[in-house]
Specification:
alpha/beta, 16 helices
Length: 464
C-alpha cells in the first residue's frame, strides 16, 4: 500500500497538529513530574497517556482543519479539551485507585493515602497544563494554516466532461486545488508549466508527441505527472470505477487476498477484538435486547442472507431496528426519515450499536471487522447488472465497517452504491493492516459523533 498517500491525506493538515500535541503531552507530563518528585515518571505510563490523549483528540475531531475561526469554533475546541481533561482524570483515577474507591464506599478505609493524593494532584495539574497549552497551540496552528493556505494549481489534459466531474469532486470535498484545462490541439510551451505544480492526464494515447516530450522534460525537473486514476487515488482516496477503461488498469492494482501473514494477523485480531468487545459490552447488549422487546414485544435480533467472500451466502445477525412488517411492500433501501424504524431503532442505528451482534459472524469467520459491507443477494443481482466492477467486492471477506463506510454516508441508491464502490476498490487496491487500523479509528470517531448513518437528502426510496 502507498502509505504516503494515507499519511499525507489523513494527514498533511493533521500531522503537524498531532505531532505537536504528542510533544506537548510527553514533555509537560515529564517536566511537572520531575519538578514535583525530583525523578522522571515511568516512560510507558507517559507514552500510554500521550497516545490516549491523541486518540481521544482525534475521535472528538480536534485535529480537523477548520475553514474559518469564529467564536463557535473556539468554544467547541475548548469544550473538547475540557472533555478530554475530565475523561483522562476519571480513567486515571479508576485505574489506579478503583479498588481503594470500592473499599471507601464500603467504609473499609480511607479513600486516598497522603502519597496517593500527591500523585493524583500531580496528574490533575499536569493534564490541566497540557490541556491549556494544547488548546493554545492548536489555535495557533489553525490560524497559521488559514493564513498560509494550501492552494495549488494543476493542469488537466482530457475530455471536458471528465474535467467538469473532477472539478465537482474538488468542490464536494472542499479541496483547495485549482484545475486548468489545456486544449488537446495546443502545442505546449514552457510558460504553460510556470504557474502549476503538475498535470493530470486522462488518456496518454491522445497526447501529441511534441507535448509528451515537453511533459517528459518537466518531469525530469520535478514536475508532477499523474494519470487520472492515480490522481483520484492520491487526492481523494478513491478509485471511481466509471473512469476505469478496462480490466488492464486494475491488474497491477488489486491486492491478492490469498492467505498471507497480513490476513492471518488480521484474522487473529478479528477474533481477539470481537471477543473483547462482546465481553465489555455485555451489559449494554442485555439492555438493548430488553428495550427492543419492550417496545413491540417482537424478536430482538434480525437475520438476513448476505453475499460474502467469493460469492458465498451467509446469514448476518443484527439488533432489529425496524418494525416487524418493514418489508411487507417488498425490499427497498432505507429513507432518511424512515417510518419503519422503531424508536429504540433510531438510537441504536445512530450509534451503530445495532451492528454489535455481527461480532458473532466475525468470530465464526464469515465476516471481518474491516472490509466491504456485504449486500443482500436480491439487491446485489441488480447492482451487478448496472454497476461495472461491482463483483470485485467479493474477493475480500466482508466487514462490519470499511473504507466506504467511514468516508461516505449511508447508501440508499444506485448512485450512492457507485460512489461507495470507488472507496471499496481503493481498499482492495491498498489493503494493509495499517489501513485497517486507520479504518478502525475512523469508525470509532464516526460512532462517537453519530454521523453517516442517514441516507443523503437527495436520495429517493427505491423498491427492488
Amino acid at each position: 500500500m502507498n502509505l504516503s498517500n494515507i499519511l499525507i491525506n489523513i494527514r498533511k493538515d493533521k500531522s503537524l497538529a498531532i505531532s505537536i500535541d504528542f510533544i506537548i503531552s510527553v514533555s509537560f507530563y515529564q517536566i511537572i513530574y520531575f519538578n514535583k518528585f525530583n525523578t522522571y515518571p515511568n516512560k510507558l505510563v507517559t507514552i500510554v497517556f500521550s497516545i490516549f490523549w491523541l486518540i481521544l483528540s482525534y475521535i472528538l475531531g480536534r485535529y480537523d482543519q477548520i475553514k474559518k475561526i469564529t467564536f463557535n469554533t473556539i468554544y467547541n475546541s475548548l469544550i473538547k479539551v475540557i472533555i478530554i481533561f475530565f475523561v483522562s482524570n476519571i480513567i486515571y483515577l479508576l485505574i489506579n485507585w478503583g479498588f481503594s474507591l470500592i473499599l471507601f464506599i464500603l467504609g473499609e478505609g480511607d479513600f486516598l493515602k497522603i502519597e496517593e493524593k500527591d500523585i493524583n494532584k500531580f496528574f490533575i495539574e499536569s493534564s490541566l497544563v497540557i490541556a491549556i497549552f494544547s488548546f493554545i497551540i492548536q489555535y495557533i496552528i489553525n490560524t497559521y494554516n488559514l493564513q498560509k493556505g494550501s492552494s495549488r494549481t494543476l493542469l488537466f489534459y482530457g475530455d471536458k466532461d471528465i474535467y467538469d466531474e473532477a472539478k465537482s469532486e474538488i468542490t464536494l470535498v472542499n479541496k483547495d486545488v485549482k484545475l486548468i484545462k489545456v486544449r488537446k490541439n495546443k502545442t505546449f510551451g514552457t510558460s504553460i508549466f510556470d504557474e502549476s505544480s503538475g498535470i493530470i492526464i486522462s488518456d496518454y494515447s491522445k497526447i501529441k508527441k511534441g507535448n509528451l516530450d515537453a511533459i517528459y522534460r518537466q518531469k525530469k525537473n520535478g514536475f508532477e505527472v499523474l494519470s487520472l486514476l492515480s490522481w483520484y487515488e492520491k487526492e481523494f482516496n478513491k478509485i471511481p470505477t466509471k473512469l476505469i477503461k478496462n480490466e488492464y488498469e486494475l491488474l497491477d492494482r488489486i491486492k491478492s487476498f490469498k492467505s498471507n501473514y497480513e490476513l492471518r494477523v488480521k484474522r487473529i485480531g478479528d477474533i481477539i477484538i470481537s471477543l473483547a468487545l462482546l465481553i465489555i459490552t455485555a451489559p449494554l447488549l442485555i439492555l438493548i435486547s430488553f428495550l427492543i422487546y419492550l417496545e413491540d414485544q417482537d424478536s430482538i435480533f434480525y437475520q438476513q442472507v448476505r453475499t460474502g467472500l467469493n460469492g458465498k451466502k451467509f446469514k448476518i445477525i443484527k439488533f432489529r431496528s425496524m418494525t416487524k412488517d418493514a418489508e411487507k411492500e417488498g425490499i427497498k433501501w432505507a429513507e432518511r426519515s424512515d417510518p419503519r424504524i422503531t424508536k429504540i431503532g433510531r438510537i441504536i442505528r445512530a450509534t451503530r450499536l445495532d451492528e454489535l451482534p455481527q461480532l458473532i459472524c466475525v468470530i465464526r469467520g464469515s465476516m471481518s471487522l474491516i472490509g466491504p459491507r456485504p449486500e443482500r443477494p436480491e439487491i446485489e443481482n441488480k447492482l451487478l447488472s448496472e454497476i461495472p466492477y461491482y463483483d470485485l467486492r467479493k474477493i475480500a471477506k466482508p466487514g462490519i465497517s470499511g473504507w466506504a463506510q467511514v468516508n461516505y454516508p449511508y447508501g440508499a441508491s444506485v448512485e450512492d452504491t457507485v460512489n461507495k464502490l470507488s472507496y471499496d476498490v481503493y481498499y482492495l487496491c491498498n489493503f494493509s493492516l495499517f489501513l485497517d487500523l486507520i479504518i478502525l479509528f475512523k469508525t470509532i470517531k464516526t460512532v462517537c459523533n453519530a454521523v453517516g448513518y442517514k441516507p443523503k437528502l437527495s436520495n429517493k426510496v427505491k423498491n427492488f
